[in-house]
Amino acid sequence: MTRLALDEPIALPALRLSPRHYARALEGIVWREWLRFLGQRGRFFSALVRPLVWLGIFAAGFRFTLGVSIIPPYETYIPYEIYVAPGLAAMIQLFNGMQSSLSMVYDREMGSMRVLLTSPLPRWYLLTAKLLAGVVVSVLQVYAFLAIALLWEVEPPLWGYLAVLPALILSGMMLGALGLLLSSTIRQLENFAGVMNFVIFPMFFASSALYPLWRVKEANLWLWYACEINPFTHAAELIRFALYGQVSWTALAVVVFCLVLFMTLAVLGYDPARGMIARRGGAE
Amino acid sequence: MGSALEQDRQAGAAPHARRRTAALPPALEIAALSHSYGSRPALRDVALSLYPGDFTILLGLNGAGKSTLFSLVTRLYAHRSGSITIFGAAIDEDPATALSRIGVVFQQSTLDLDLTVEQNLRYHAALHGLPRRRAEMRIVAEIARVDLAKRRGDKVRQLSGGQRRRVEIARALLHDPKLLLLDEPTVGLDVEGRQFLLDHVRGLCRNEGIGVLWATHLIDEVGADARVVVLHQGSVMAEGTVPEILAATGTASIREAFDALTRRSERKP
To answer: Chain B partners of A25 at a C-beta cutoff of 8 Å?
Structure first.
C-alpha cells in the first residue's frame, strides 16, 4: 500500500459546470415558479381582473372622449378597446415583473434567494433563469387576457398571437429586470404600495399604453418627452406592432437595450463583491 | 475518508494526529478574515480551521458576527480581506467548486412553505445539477435518514418547526457536501427536536467524516467531544477542544470559560 506524504494534502477535483447542469438548474427554477403559480391561482385571476376592469369599464367610458386616428400598425379607424388592449397586455407584464422581482425583498423571500445564490452556478445565470421563470407566468396571463378580450372584439390576426410571443418574452424580461434592479438597490421600496406610486403608475400613465403619443404631444410637450424616453412605452409598442404581425424597430432596440442595461445593473447589484446587499448586510 | 477517521478514532488518536492521517486539506480554512458594513466592523482578523469529521461549535452571543461569517463562507457577501478555502478551493477564485462542497442550513428557514417536502428537495437537486434519477435516489435516502419518509408528499407548511429543520438538513446534504454549515439550527425548537438534530449531525461527523460548523449562542449545545470556536464582537477569542479551552482559561466548565473570555475582551477598550 502506498502511503501519501503527510504534508501533501490530496487535491480534490474541481467542479466543472456542464451544459447539463445549467439546463437542470433552469428547468428546476421554471418548474418551481410553475408550482408556485399553480398554488396561487387566486393571484393569477386577480391579476387578470385588473386589465379587464380597464378594458370593460375605463375603455367604455374613455372611447367617446378620445378619437383615435389611423396610426400604424392599424389600417383603419379602430375603437378605443382595440387600441388599449396591447397596452393592457404590457401592464400585466409590468405588474408581474415588479411583483415577482420585488417579492424577493418584501415577501422576505431573501430566504429562498439564498438557496438560489448559494448554488454553484454563476449569479448572472441564476438571476436570468429566475426572470425567465417569472416571464413564463406573465406570458400565460397575457394570453388569457387576450382570449377574454375577444369579447370586446379585440381580434388581431391569428398569426399575430404567435408573433407576439417573442415580444412578450422580451418586454417581460425587460420589466422583470427593472424590478430585479429595484429590489437589489432600493431598500425603501419594500411595500408594494410604494412601488405602485413611484414606479408602476408613472410608467403606465406616461406611456403610449392608454393614448397615442401624438395626442400627448398636442397636449403637453414635456409629457411627450417623458413618454418617449419611458421604456414601458416601447414595451407596449413592441407588443402592439407584434400583435399585428409587424416589428417596431425602435421599440425593439429600446427594449433590448434596456433589458441588457437593467440586467447588467441588477447582476452588479446582486454581485457579492460590489452589490448593495453586501454593503448594508441586506440578507440578514 | 470515513473509514480512515474511524480507525484513528478507535486507536484513540489525538485530534491533530487524526487530521494529518486523513491527508485531506481542511474542510474549511479561514485566515485573516475581516469584514465591515460601512464603517461598522463585523469581523476582525478571524482565523479558523475545520477538518473532515470535526464537529465544531461556533459559539457567540447574538451579534457576535456568526451570521456574517456564514454569509462570507457561502459567498452571499464577498470578503475583501483574508481568505476562505473549502477543501483547498478558494471561495473567491473558484466559487462553483467551493459552493458545490458546502451544505448550508441558514438561521431563518429557506423552504418554500407551499411546496411539498419532496418538491423543495427536487428544486435544490436541480440547482446543484443532479441528474434526475440520482436526485430521486438521494431524496429518498436523505428523507428517510431524518425520519420523514411518510411526510414527503406533505406541504412544508403542515410540518412542525423541528420537522422543517430536518427537511433543511436533508436538503443541505442532497448533493453530498463534505462540509455542513448550520446557523443557529435549534432556535425555536423543543428539547426533543434539538436533541434529534444534535444527534443526527454528530452522527454525520462520526460516520461519514463530514466537517460541521454549528453556530449557536446556546452553551449547553457544546458536547464534550466538540471543538469550539468562541466568537465575540467579531473576533475569535479561543479555538480548540473543550479540555484545551478549559485549560487555557483555567476554568471548570465551558460556560465559565465563555464568560471569562467575553469579559476579558470587554475590559479591553
So the answer is: 126-127, 129
Identify whether B108 is part of a domain. Answer: no
Cβ of A111 within 8 Å of Cβ of B38? The answer is: no
Cβ-based neighbours of B110, under 8 Å, separated by 6 or more? A111, A112, A114, A115, B168
Query: Which pTM was predicted?
Result: 0.84
DSSP state of B122: H
Does residue B94 lie within any of the structural domains?
yes
pLDDT of residue B20: 43
CATH number for the domain spanning B37: value is: 3.40.50.300
Question: Phi then psi for B131, rounded to 5 degrees?
Answer: -60, 150
Tens digit of each residue's pLDDT (9 = 90 or more) over B115-144: 999 999 999 999 999 999 999 999 999 999
Give the model's confidence band at B21: pLDDT under 50 very low, under 70 low, under 90 confident, else very high.
Answer: very low
A267 to chain B nearest CA, in Å? 13
Q: How many domains does chain B have?
A: 1
Q: Please list every residue in chain A whose beta carbon sits closer than 8 Å to the beta carbon of residue B124.
A: 115, 119
What's the grid cell of residue B42? 463585523
Domain annotation covers residue B150: no
Residues of A in contact with B51 (CB under 8 A): none
Q: Which residues pair with A262 in a beta bridge?
A: none
Reduced to 3 states (helix: H, G, I; strand: E, B; else coil), residue B55 is strand
Closest residue in chain A to residue B87, using alpha carbons only: A12
Q: Do A11 and B106 touch (CB under 8 A)?
A: no
Examine residue B194 and state whether it is found in any structural domain, yes or no. Answer: yes
- Yes or no, beta carbons of A10 and B24 under 8 Å apart: yes
Domain range holding B215? 2-101+177-267
